């Protein structure tokens, strides 16, 4: 019953999306006011129905209903409940249902909460949102039905990929999807504003909170995914330039650029056409990412489905939506009036540079990701790996960091070059002294990029708090705090990356129980190997005690786990976090009689990478709250004034 | 300066940045186009020592040897046409074994041995290195062939 209920809810939601699109078209053509008023409730009900369908699927997974094909192929009755729950989206159909759910819920949120937009633009926005949703409903219902039954029911399920059996699965995909798909709202706003010719500062002010919200979740999702890969894969790396990682990075780059250009448009009424373009590009990148991940043309732990039919379906959707939006843009861009002028030395210019650099990185990552696919079409198998991405993204990202440090010190519209130089004196001095110190202490021992990374990270950290100088902390607007914390987060994250690649110490040994291993100031005493068992796995575990200096020993337990359904081995690295870094221990195979392979890393300040990512998201959240609160305060004051 | 001139300057800067980025990408991709090698490519084209590449093929049966330190292994990689000696220090993936496919990341040393820093083994049907798709290893002849 539950599966049929879910399917019915999904069909009904699709029908409502069609109705919503029809109402929007009718409304824009000057339809009757009561029909125009209906569009909000329709969007809300549509969102509620998708949520119900999703809850139905979660229920099926929780109950291990093996008469449902998706549950039988991806779940197992012996799994811990958390992975039954999170396993709902650990497969192709479930993750696509999560996609349309987020899209429906985001549309409902726009219908419920968006009051700043003009009525006709709002209607057009909801219409655009419905149009995108329709394509994905069709994809789900016609080629990826999550509620399909099998007869007879399977005796038990085939289990979930053990790499995914981690608490990270409960957090990383939903957060990422809310960010990813949340960008569809920005896309719909852009389409709506183009349709009603309302591309102006008020449009940017209305769109900005939605972009900020999606961007915060996207940042959190990427940060969580990076940390998850770092501790789960046991390779000690935190970013692999896997096409799937690039698929999440590209929308983030576009959304970051959009966030800043929307600020220019909202504050100074400049960069109109460009902002609209970016809003289209950002969600297009989300769809390109989905195509790459879900079409099966790439192999990775994220690619569940290898089905060419689905690939062509998504490709067709991609063509319709991106092509359609770009065509609309080309058609209407002439009606977007020229924005306000600005001088060369101004914050606007710095934000243009920010956008330019972000777009360049985006373009280069896109080329690197698609290049193997394009050459394969001509019969060559080529893989583009970390050497390419490091070489192109590294230098541009460093230039971007410098622009980020200088930007907030320059005034809007027009500034004086010598005044800017005076303001950036202190950070520049700090930068030069750091340069001197790092150069003297570690010249020749670390690579050029990590070296520059360390220097720039520390300089930018100082520069990013410069906007707070001479201000009273409590009187500083919350969104200024948000900007400062987000920029500081970038510096912290960059510092972590540079420190990790410059100073990591790696040791590889084959050790017998009873031996003590020494590396990077740590003493690791390997006590014994013993078998342990979990709910659906057994493992070999090394009991170790580690200490540093004269400190008390701490017990750590790296494991090598064996899962039976499906049969797979995973490494569970032992991580010991200290303020100045992380000790990372992986247990390998038995080398020969009695000796066990171990890989040990001491990674100084590696945790800064994810701390910085969290700070960036927190900064975005503060900016969002700050802007919204200011809006409420103004509204409240206005209301009180009219009442008096 | 007039606003128009400034727009022009900005546009020129943007154009210069784009051209620069395009050239950067082109030069990086030119190196990258030669990123993946099969043993036969190594023999025919030659790879300079120290250049980071991916070497892909099958691990020859009977070639896998463990060094005394317990963490280094030596093995041969073949694509049926040529064979290349390789070594790896570290924890090899569980599915790394003789007669099975492997993609090794690393570089050649001065003596023609491929020193791998990372091994990507065929995990299961759902996750295998892309370069090994459509290749199989003949158990009796120790030959590798491409499936069509």
UniProtKB/TrEMBL annotation, chain A:
Which residue ranges does UniProt annotate as crossing the membrane?
6-26, 38-62, 96-113, 125-143, 177-197, 209-229, 249-266, 273-293, 313-331, 352-372, 392-412, 424-443, 449-469, 478-499, 604-625
- PANTHER family, per the entry: CYTOCHROME C ASSEMBLY PROTEIN-RELATED, CYTOCHROME C-TYPE BIOGENESIS PROTEIN CCMF
Q: What is its main location?
A: membrane
Q: Which family does it belong to?
A: Belongs to the CcmF/CycK/Ccl1/NrfE/CcsA family.
Q: What cellular-component terms does GO give this entry?
A: plasma membrane
Q: What keywords is this UniProt entry annotated with?
A: Cell inner membrane, Cell membrane, Cytochrome c-type biogenesis, Membrane, Transmembrane, Transmembrane helix
Tell me the organism: Sphingobium fontiphilum
Q: Which InterPro entries match?
A: CcmF_C, Cyt_c_assembly, Cyt_c_biogenesis, Cyt_c_biogenesis_CcmF
State the name under which the record lists this protein: Cytochrome c-type biogenesis protein CcmF
Q: Any idea where the Cytochrome c assembly protein domain is?
A: 89-295
Q: Does the record bear Cell inner membrane in its keywords? A: yes
A Gene Ontology biological process in which this protein takes part is:
cytochrome complex assembly
Pfam family membership, one: Cytochrom_C_asm
Taxonomic lineage from the root: Bacteria, Pseudomonadati, Pseudomonadota, Alphaproteobacteria, Sphingomonadales
What kind of membrane protein is this, topologically? Multi-pass membrane protein
Domain (Cytochrome c-type biogenesis protein CcmF C-terminal) spans: 315-627
TrEMBL record, chain B:
Q: What is this protein called?
A: Cytochrome c-type biogenesis protein CcmE
The signal peptide here is 1-25
Record Gene3D superfamilies: Nucleic acid-binding proteins (2.40.50.140)
Query: Which residue stretches, if any, does this entry annotate as coiled coil?
Result: none
* rRNA-binding keyword on record: no
Cellular component (GO) terms are:
plasma membrane
Membership in a protein family: Belongs to the CcmE/CycJ family.
Q: Which residues lie on this side of the membrane: Extracellular?
A: 29-148
Q: Which residues lie on this side of the membrane: Cytoplasmic?
A: 1-7
Q: Which NCBIfam families match?
A: PRK13254.1-1 (NF009727), PRK13254.1-5 (NF009731)
């Amino acid at each position: 019953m539950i599966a049929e209920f879910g399917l019915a809810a999904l069909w009904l939601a699709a029908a409502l999306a069609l109705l919503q699109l029809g109402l929007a078209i009718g409304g824009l053509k000057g339809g009757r006011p009561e029909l125009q008023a209906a569009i909000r409730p329709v969007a809300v009900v549509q969102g509620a129905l998708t949520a119900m369908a999703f809850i139905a699927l979660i229920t099926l997974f929780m109950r291990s209903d093996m008469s449902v094909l998706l549950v039988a192929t991806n779940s197992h009755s012996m799994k811990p409940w958390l992975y039954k729950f999170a396993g709902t989206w650990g497969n192709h159909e479930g993750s696509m249902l999560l996609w349309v759910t987020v899209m429906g819920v985001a549309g409902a949120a726009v219908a419920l909460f968006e009051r700043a937009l003009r009525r006709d633009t709002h209607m057009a926005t909801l219409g655009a949102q419905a149009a995108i949703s329709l394509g994905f409903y069709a994809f789900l219902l016609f080629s990826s039905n999550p509620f399909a039954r099998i007869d007879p029911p399977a005796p038990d399920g085939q289990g979930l990929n053990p790499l995914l059996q981690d608490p990270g699965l409960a957090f990383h995909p939903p957060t990422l999807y809310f960010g990813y798909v949340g960008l569809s709202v920005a896309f719909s706003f852009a389409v709506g504003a183009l349709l009603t010719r309302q591309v102006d500062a008020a449009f940017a002010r209305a769109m900005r909170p939605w972009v900020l919200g999606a961007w915060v979740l996207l940042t959190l999702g990427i940060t969580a995914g990076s940390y998850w890969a770092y501790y789960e894969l046991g390779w000690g790396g935190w970013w692999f330039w896997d096409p799937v990682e690039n698929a999440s990075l590209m929308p983030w780059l576009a959304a970051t650029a959009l966030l800043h250009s929307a600020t220019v448009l909202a504050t100074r009424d400049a960069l109109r056409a460009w902002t609209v373009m970016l809003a289209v590009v950002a969600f297009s990148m989300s769809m390109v990412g989905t195509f790459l991940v879900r079409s099966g043309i790439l192999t990775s732990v994220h690619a569940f489905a290898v089905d060419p039919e689905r690939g062509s379906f998504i490709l067709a959707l991609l063509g319709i939506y991106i092509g359609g939006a770009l065509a609309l843009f080309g058609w209407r861009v002439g009606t977007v009036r020229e924005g306000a002028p600005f001088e060369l030395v101004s914050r606007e210019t710095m934000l243009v540079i920010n956008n330019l650099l972000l777009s360049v990185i985006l373009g280069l990552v896109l080329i690197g990701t698609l290049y193997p696919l394009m050459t394969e079409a001509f019969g060559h198998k080529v893989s583009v790996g970390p050497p390419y991405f490091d070489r192109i993204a590294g230098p541009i990202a460093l230039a971007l960091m410098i622009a980020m440090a200088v930007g907030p010190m320059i005034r809007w519209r027009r500034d004086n070059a010598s005044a800017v130089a005076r303001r950036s004196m202190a950070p520049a001095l700090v930068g030069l002294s750091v340069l001197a110190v790092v150069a003297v202490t570690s010249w020749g021992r670390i690579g050029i990029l990590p070296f520059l990374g360390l220097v720039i990270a520390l300089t930018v950290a100082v520069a990013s708090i410069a906007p707070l100088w001479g201000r009273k902390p409590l009187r500083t607007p919350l969104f200024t705090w948000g900007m400062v914390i987000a920029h500081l987060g970038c510096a912290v994250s960059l510092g972590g990356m540079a420190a990790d690649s410059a100073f990591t110490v790696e040791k590889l040994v084959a050790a017998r129980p009873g031996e003590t291993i020494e590396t990077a100031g740590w003493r690791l005493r390997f006590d014994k190997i013993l078998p342990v068992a979990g709910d659906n796995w057994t493992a070999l575990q090394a009991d170790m005690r580690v200490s540093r200096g004269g400190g008390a020993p701490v017990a750590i337990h790296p494991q090598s786990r064996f899962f039976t359904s499906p049969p797979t081995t995973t490494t569970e690295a032992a991580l010991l976090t200290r303020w100045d870094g992380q000790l990372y221990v992986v247990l390998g195979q038995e080398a020969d009689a009695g000796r066990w392979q171990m890989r040990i890393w001491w990674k100084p300040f590696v945790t800064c990478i994810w701390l910085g990512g969290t700070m960036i998201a927190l900064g975005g959240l503060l900016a969002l709250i700050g802007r919204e609160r200011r809006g409420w305060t103004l509204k409240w004051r206005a209301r009180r004034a009219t009442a008096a | 300066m007039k606003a128009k001139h400034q727009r022009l300057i900005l546009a020129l800067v943007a154009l210069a940045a784009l051209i620069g980025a395009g050239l950067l990408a082109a030069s990086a991709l030119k190196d990258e186009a030669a990123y993946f090698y099969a043993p036969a490519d190594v023999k025919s084209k030659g790879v300079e020592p120290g250049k980071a590449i991916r070497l892909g093929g099958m691990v020859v049966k009977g070639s896998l040897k463990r060094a005394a330190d317990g963490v280094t292994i030596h093995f041969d990689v073949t694509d049926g046409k040529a064979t290349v000696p390789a070594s790896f220090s570290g924890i090899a993936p569980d599915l790394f074994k003789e007669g099975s496919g492997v993609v090794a990341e690393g570089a050649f040393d001065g003596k023609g041995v491929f020193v791998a820093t990372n091994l990507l083994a065929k995990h299961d049907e759902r996750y295998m290195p892309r370069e090994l798709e459509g290749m199989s290893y003949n158990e009796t002849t120790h030959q590798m062939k491409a499936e069509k």
